[in-house]
Amino acid sequence: MGLMALETYVPGRSPIHGWEPRQKLFSLMALMFALAMVKQAWLIIPMVAVTALLYWLSDLPLSFLLQRWSYPGLFILAAVILLPFVSGETVLGQWGWLSIRQEGLIAMVLIAGRFFCILSLGFILFGTTPFLTMVTSLRRLGLPPLMADMALLAYRYLYDIGHAFSTMHQAMQLRGLGQRREKRRSMQQWAFLLGNLLLRSYEQSQRVYQAMALRGYGQAISPKVNQVNTLGQGKSPTDLGLTVAVLAIAIGFVVAEVSW
User: Fold this and answer.
1) pLDDT of residue 115
2) Coil/strand/helix, residue 144
3) Which residues pair with 98 in a beta bridge?
């Protein structure tokens, strides 16, 4: 089931893997926001080149990216595929009643280019950084503790719900789910499965919260964050070079967009 494959981290020893997580998070997020501001068509090629370079430095397999592009890619293509035919006034070519317009074509390239570049940067970020390390980095960058706890618990419960769903679905299949062609009975069985899953999840969340409260969750704690630095010191020349380079590229895109 898809919920059981949420972990996108791919272990490795690339420069992006070794990049200090807080610097990596801040730098790549800044680059994503800079790319989102791009409205000049000629900047698409530099955007793709920078994204491809960072992906090459991450040493992630190409299949990792292609597999995760599939569903978002179909969605964005379905959203922009008609733009060259319905948007704009400058006709580049016409075949009968069908015409391709320049403004719509540029808009399609910009939207798709920004989308795939930003999505790829997100995959680089999560593919080279474990989720726990990501949340810890956000916490050290100022994320409220409650939101960090909610993110970790939600991430864990997605796996728990996926495991429970797989078990219940297999049990119901052994009892005949999907073997009969009666749509009404099949819908009733699916409704029972989802309702039972919802009730189990609610009961489990109550038990977990009570266990956490008994162990002191929510009580007064020391304002100091754990001083054991599990994220790396961030003093490596490679880390500093990557941070400066990516931030400079992000600023360059913003300046180019504003200047032209």
Assistant:
1) 94
2) coil
3) 95
Reading the block at residue 40, the tokens are 């000049």
Locate the domains of the chain by residue range: 15-137+236-259, 144-215
pLDDT for 59: 92
Q: What local confidence, expressed as pLDDT, does residue 247 receive?
A: 96
Buried b (16+ CB within 10 A) or exposed e, 141-178: eeeeeeeeeebeeeeebeeebbebbeebbeebeeeebe
State the pairing for strand pair 91-95/98-101. Answer: antiparallel
Give the separation between CA 20 and CA 118, rounded to whole angstroms.
Answer: 20
CB 253 within 8 A of CB 38: yes
User: Torsion angle of alpha carbons 64, 66, 8, 200, nearest 10°?
Assistant: -140
Q: What pLDDT, on the 0 to 100 scale, is given for residue 253?
A: 95
Instruction: Report how many helices (DSSP H) and strands (DSSP E) the chain contains, helices first.
Output: 10, 2
Dist. CA 22–CA 26, nearest whole Å = 6
Provide the pLDDT for residue 228. Answer: 41
Burial of 83 (0-12, 13-18, 19+ CB in 10 A): buried
Residues of the chain short of pLDDT 70, as ranges, are 1-7, 176-186, 218-235
In terms of C-beta density within 10 A (0-12 exposed, 13-18 middle, 19 or more buried), how is residue 42 classed?
exposed
pTM: 0.75
DSSP, collapsed to helix, strand or coil, labels residue 100 as strand
What pLDDT score does 8 carry?
74
Q: What is the pLDDT of residue 3?
A: 45
User: Three-state SS for 8?
Assistant: coil
Residue 160 half-sphere exposure toward CB, CA atoms < 13 A: 15
Structure tokens at 172: 């119901």
